[in-house]
Amino acid sequence: MISFRAPQWGMTTALATLGLVAGCGGGGGRVVSPTPIASAPAPTPTPVPAPTPAPAPTPTATPTSTFITAEFNRSTGPAQHGAITAWAGGTTGAGVTIGVVDSGIDSDSPEFAGRLSVASADVAGSRGIDNPDDDHGTNVSLIAAAARDNTGIVGIAFGATIAMFRADSPGSCATFDPAKKDSGCSFNDVAIAAGVNRAIDAGARVINLSLGGSPPSAALRAAVQRAAASGVVVVISAGNDGDSTDAAKDPNNPDPFAAGLQLVGNGNVIIVGSVDANNLISTFSNRAGTFANSYLTARGERVCCTYENGVLKVTTDSTGARFVTVFSGTSFSAPQVAGAVALLRQAFPNLSATQTVDLLLRTARDAGAAGIDATYGRGILDITAAFAPQGTTSLANSTAALPLGGSTLVTSSAMGDARGLEAQSAVVLDSYSRAYGYDLSAGFRHAQIAPRLASALDASSRNLSLGGGRLALAFSVDARGRTAALPWRGQLRLSGDDAQGARVLAARVIARIAPKTLLGFAMAQGPDGLVAQLQGQERAAFLIAGSPLDDLGFTQARQTSVAVRRELGSWGLTASAATGSALTGAPVAYNESLARGREENRTARYGVAFDRNFGAVGTAMGATWLREDRTVLGALLNPGLGGGRGAESLVVDAAASWRVGDAWRLGANLRGGATWPRAGGVLQGRGALLSSAWSLDATRFDLLARGDSMSFRLSQPLRVERGALGLLLPVDYDYATLGVTEAGRNVSLTPKGREIDAELAWRGALMGGTAGASLFYRRDPGHYAALPDDKGLAMTWSRAF
């Protein structure tokens, strides 16, 4: 069986400035009008793969501007197909052999210096691999692997080795006649099969067949089957019959040569059609047809340029005008893909031939009709997309999914400006088990700072109370229906859904169920205030400086609380329990998109407290066990990092107040906590997070008028004082052994800032209602050292109806 390769020829056109060229050429009789070839923009850098056995590099690639040269601009394909993405990560095809079965190669060309395999040979005779009558094989090899040497053009895989197996029938190339479309080199299937087998033996990882014509013989089919079994990718031109008027040729399917070999390739064969500079299918290119699932397109129209004596061929006419020659044909789209295969197989040595083919087809840029279609098949070669992580990603030492672009850690307000995951790089694997260096800090999110003054003044709620004796009830009702939309009111309000429906923001019921026993229930409030009421504590009212005994370091929602107090002589014993949700400090991102709201994760609290009065001095001490289902003191760690297991906390409180006569009351409150994250996966046990909050109060009664009060508070909201999460991260990946090198990394949750609040508050009767004025100052708001201090004055007035 004889297979024919369509002849190549072209007309010359004037050489443009700055290395841009124009011209035309032939592939299957193509003739095009001369127009300049413009350079495409550099692709956006993406995470680059880990080499073997060196550590995985970070997603920040080498600046692409270093690759934008006159040589690059002259080259047809690297820019259009995004090769810079691979180059910027250090991938050039080095160490990968591209087997080319064609008409020979210019072995003296500096474009292949040091990268021409010693296994190269003439498999159809004893002429050597240099062919003075034809440069088709040279041009194919240039497109795949021309050197990056600032002359001529640069190939897709400019560091790869070319193993050329000359298979043209002796004497056939010398008969080439540009006036005849059916003339040119011919190739015997026996020689092609020999070339494929020799390429396999030479260690080729990809074989390029820019050939076409009759259906392949049994010997050639067997050679391609052997290539598939040996883990070699085979790339074949689709054919140049797209605009043929020959009834025997089918332009809507790849030619019989390509079709026959794809059928025996066991998923390791790619058929390549041609597109132009605008990514439109070339008129001469055979379409995908019934082979759409294995068909890819790449630049094969007006490809630069013909060489002579190892350099770009430039001719000059009698007027002094300079010309170059470009060429067209699916013969030249195939080596674009072969070069891409070489890049992938260097960067990701773990990829099988079948995976490499699947990856290139799956990541192709869609063209024509949406999805796979009969013209463009899977689409247009996209090296940038092929080098990007695909499918589910996870840490190299874990099976838990870790979506890139999502949140890795969302901290709580107690952690302020903690460094968190700053510059913590780890190796992740995609669905093809390819290794990437990924900076986990890209998904680190600090808790948002609640605008306390706005929320305090915009509450617009009505407080209703009734009862006496054995039963007392109190409700907080939204007066305008707007308060439910304020997420930072979570500690004192219902969830948004509940509040919008009921307009009841909070409720509390206190009942005396026995002479010495009080029982309390609260909705949308934590147990702290409920316990304080059962104990009979006096608390000053402040707008900004909250009580540390109401502070867990994170916003809570959907709380339901119960407490019971029993008098034991001069002591009081109170037990409490509560359920609710920890509301994340910032919206959580998954798969590069923001969740519609902040996540809520269940919490439960169980506490016990003792109180006793010593004359004018009231004291109380208590301990609470806090269980978080998924969060760690309100912080949410991505499950892919071992998060989602929750934490246990022990919170200890102490409070004291001293009533100094009728005019003064002094108070002090202290809260300390220890939080133990539940270890698992890459999250290691590294001790507890220690936290604290405190306040000092002073109140003067009847200062300006009978019944008014002036109060001052100095306080610190709950803050993590010491502690970090311990992660055992993969920092290196070896493709040879698929082994992972791990290293411990601490994720600091201790903020640099320390918020200190000072507030002077007056409250008294005015104009038939109750008025209040507050002068406040917040240093390092939210425990952020870099934020300006927050200060202001607020005035309120309310009236009972």
- Which quaternary structure do these chains form? single chain
**Which structural class do the helices and strands define?**
mainly beta
Mean pLDDT level: 85
Query: pLDDT under 50 segments (min length 5)?
Result: 1-62, 481-504, 592-596
CA distance, first residue to last residue: 102 Å
Strand order of the largest sheet: 23-24-25-26-27-28-31-32-34-35-37-38-41-42-43
- Number of separate strands: 43
Residues in helices, as a percent range = 10-25%
Radius of gyration: 38 Å
Number of helices: 12
Tell me, what's the shape? elongated
Q: Outline the biggest β-sheet.
A: 15 strands, antiparallel
- Strand proportion, as a percent range, falls in 25-35%
Care to describe what's here?
With 801 residues, the protein is mainly beta. 13% of the residues lie in helices and 35% in strands. It is built from twelve helices and 43 strands. A 15-stranded antiparallel sheet has the order 23-24-25-26-27-28-31-32-34-35-37-38-41-42-43. Strands 4-5-3-7-9-10-11 form a seven-stranded parallel sheet, with helices on both faces. Helix 3 (136-145) packs parallel to helix 7 and helix 4 runs parallel beside helix 5. The longest helix has 18 residues, at 330-347.
